[in-house]
Specification:
This protein is α/β, with parallel strands linked by helices and 718 residues long. The protein has 20 helices and 20 strands. It has 4 domains: 123 residues; 176 residues, no CATH class; 102 residues, no CATH class; 133 residues, no CATH class. The termini are far apart.
Length: 718
């Protein structure tokens, strides 16, 4: 510090740290000691593993005796430093020149530098001595743990247990790939044999539990008290659950808002039809996979540009139906939300869930199903959906020919089986459907009076679907004025014929008004389905507006209610294996000897829905599918009844002599080969299907009755 005396002379005041020889020596020795300490103990701390505390010291790098010896040497070195510094301090005090008279007033503020340094070095020496004692205790404890772990390490070898045949192979896999997914480290895997076996026995189930591990049984999940579902009429909370930010969600919410009054009236009517029927409130996860960013979400940007809206219509109506029925919903449209609700551990989805699913039912689509398969890991085998098909408005879909955004229903259960799907529009999957806007008496009269003389509306919002359709459209144009709603931005699409009056993309209310003006139901045609007649007059007589019951809000509520109440994907039904003693046959031959019926004296199969008494079994003609065989008799095919017919007894009761009976895999079985008398049973229950036909086989088909206006339900299904 620079000071000025009264006489004008400039003096330099020394600071605490000055460049004197003994101070340089002290700093050098201190720095050397610090480096020596870090070097000596650093190797031990470098052996830390993920999950160790900052105070964990491992003895693999340096043994306990060596570490204690290092600490003793450091303590001795510091004691030597104290002695030498004491001598240096005395030497400095002797050689210290007297201060000038001008510095006399500062002498009282100073303390001998050597004395202060001595105190600090002595304090450091005492601290290191204390550390040495504590580290010595830690090392002794570490040696005891090391001996115990050595004994355990002998037990960390993959056991040869016939009950766990995959254990050794899984351990080999873990050795090579345990770093491939962060979820393994999340569960404590650190590359040691013990961590592999602990994980494979306690998180997964491929290895037996280790005898030296704590074998306390996990606490069963706390069951929530059952709550009765109550019909709802206010859908405000549902709109909040649906979220926003996407054009597709905005479209769905607007549709739900527009139909709120219609849903409320339907709930009131259904409640009157089901008086006193107990309905447990279900915890339901609805994951709309095709709207997630991970799946591309190609729908949202095209909502206002002529993109497909059918999937969004179905999802909006399913959400509304579930909510109006009084169930608890969780709606997700992102992968992050899905992972959070499933309880997926961090990582890439290789590890299973360690807690039960918090949902009774899951509604999702093919994108969502793929995401669940990817991120649920091995748990997907436990909770995998037994039925993965999408549901189309006019029937049931299949993966190969149906949009990946259509809904499907799964159930949270253990040991469930998946059903492979047949062709499109077959009963192999439960029909979900959607609703259509209902008209009151006044509106119906207005529609009748507002019909245009000769007007047809052709549905096709994207220009590409009009390509190659000019010939059938020109035939339609001979009899009617053709209108369209094709989206375009600036120029009229060249694919649309010039005689078509294009209104552009219309909002839903305006589009409904346009449809109501069209003459007759057949005049409203869709290009995708090729419903435009090419060689007959499309003009139909005047008809009254008609809406099938299953497309009303009440019809959809009734259908979804029946599915939730009665469908049990976890129940396993099936025929006895070949050679096993089968139970008494539940079938009797009908009086006219044409088909089998469920005997009145036979007990109903537990957990079967639809009820087994609605079963009618027919032997179809060669080349006929079961869907057609049942339809010809005024019935519908019921795939859940196939296991009852998959037996030799069914053929015998139908008076079909089988020269031989084989069990093989084919979507056509059970069936009778043509020509000949070879009978075939189904070996793989996943292949049961109402669809499919072959001229070489006569299929054994399970049919059932149905409710008027509600084909998805049998007469006794409610």
């Amino acid at each position: 510090m620079i000071t000025v005396n009264p006489d004008g002379k400039i003096m330099v005041r020394r600071c605490l740290v000055t460049l004197r020889p003994f101070r340089l020596f002290v700093l050098g020795v201190g720095f050397f000691s610090l480096c020596f300490l870090m070097t000596s103990l650093g190797g031990q701390f470098s052996a830390r593993r993920p999950g160790d505390s900052p105070f964990t010291i491992r003895t693999e790098v340096m043994g306990g005796p060596e570490s204690r010896g290092v600490l003793r040497k450091m303590s001795d070195l510091l004691e030597l430093m104290v002695k030498r510094m004491d001598a240096l301090a005395r030497l400095e005090n002797i050689s210290e020149p007297h201060r000038a008279a001008g510095e006399g007033h500062l002498a009282a503020d100073r303390t001998p530098a050597g004395a202060g340094l001595m105190e600090r070095i002595q304090a450091i020496a005492q601290n290191v001595s204390d550390i040495a004692a504590k580290v010595d205790q830690i090392l002794r404890h570490s040696l005891l743990l090391s001996k115990a772990s050595e004994g355990r390490r002998d037990q960390c070898e993959a056991p040869s247990d016939p009950k766990f045949p995959d254990c050794s192979g899984k351990v080999e896999w873990m050795r090579a790939r345990w770093t491939s997914d962060p979820c393994y480290a999340f569960f404590g895997v650190d590359g040691t044999e013990c961590s592999f076996l602990i994980y494979l026995s306690e998180v997964e189930w491929f290895c037996p539990p280790l005898p030296w591990r704590n074998q306390t049984a996990p606490r069963p999940p706390k069951l929530l008290p059952k709550v009765q579902a109550v019909f709802r009429s206010n859908l405000t909370h549902l709109l909040e659950l649906m979220g926003g930010g996407k054009e597709s969600l905005i479209f769905m919410k607007r549709r739900t808002e527009r139909l709120t009054a219609q849903w409320a009236r339907a709930a009131q009517r259904l409640a009157q039809k089901l008086p006193g029927v107990p309905r447990d409130q279900k915890q339901i996860l609805v994951h709309i996979g095709f709207l997630t960013e991970e799946s591309g979400d190609v729908f949202s940007p095209r909502v206002l540009k002529g993109g497909p809206l059918g999937e969004m219509v179905q999802w909006a109506d399913i959400l509304a139906a579930l909510y109006v029925l009084g169930h608890s919903l969780r709606v997700t449209v992102s992968l992050k939300e899905l992972q959070s609700n499933l309880g997926v551990p961090p990582g890439r989805g290789s590890c299973p869930l360690t807690v039960p699913l918090a949902f009774d039912l899951v509604y999702t689509d093919y994108h969502g199903l793929q995401q669940m398969r990817q991120h649920m890991g091995l748990s997907f085998r436990k909770y995998r959906p037994p039925q993965t098909g999408a549901c189309t408005p006019s029937g049931q879909g299949a993966p190969e020919d149906r949009s990946a955004g259509a809904p499907a229903r799964t159930q949270s259960c253990l040991g469930a089986t998946r059903r492979l799907l047949g062709g499109a529009h077959t009963p192999d999957n439960s029909f979900m459907g959607f609703v259509s806007e209902e008209l009151n008496e006044t509106e119906q009269q207005l529609v009748k009076g507002g019909k245009a003389g000769n007007m047809a509306v052709v549905y096709g919002k994207e220009a590409s679907v009009w390509k190659g359709k000019e010939k059938p459209l020109s035939i339609l144009n001979k009899y009617m004025e053709v209108h369209g709603t094709v989206y375009y931005e600036s120029q009229r699409p060249p694919e649309v014929p010039a005689f078509v009056k294009n209104h552009g993309l219309l909002p839903q209310p305006e589009f409904q008004q346009l449809l109501r003006k069209a003459k007759g139901g057949r005049a409203k045609a869709g290009l995708g389905g090729q419903r435009i007649p090419a060689h007959e007059s499309p003009v139909s007589p005047q008809v009254d507006p008609y809406l099938p019951y299953e497309y009303t809000c009440e019809g959809m509520l009734e259908r979804i209610h029946a599915y939730i109440q009665h469908q049990d994907f976890c129940a396993v039904t099936g025929s006895a294996p070949l050679g096993a003693r089968a139970p008494p046959s539940p079938f009797v031959l009908a009086p006219n000897a044409t088909h089998l019926e469920w005997s009145r004296n036979a007990s109903l199969a537990p957990g079967t829905w639809p009820p087994a008494r609605s079963l009618r079994a027919w032997l179809a003609a060669a080349g006929s599918a079961c869907t057609d065989a049942c339809l010809e008799r005024g019935l519908v095919c019921e795939p859940s009844f196939f296991p009852f017919l998959n037996s030799q007894d069914a053929f015998r009761r139908l008076q079909v002599p089988c020269d031989s009976t084989e069990s093989e895999m084919s979507h056509l079985y059970p069936a009778l080969a043509q020509p000949g008398r070879e009978c075939y049973l189904q070996r793989e229950p996943l292949l049961f299907s109402c669809a499919g036909s072959s001229a070489k086989f006569r299929r054994l088909c399970p049919c059932r009755d149905f409710r008027k206006g509600q084909v998805a339900l049998c007469r006794d299904c409610l």
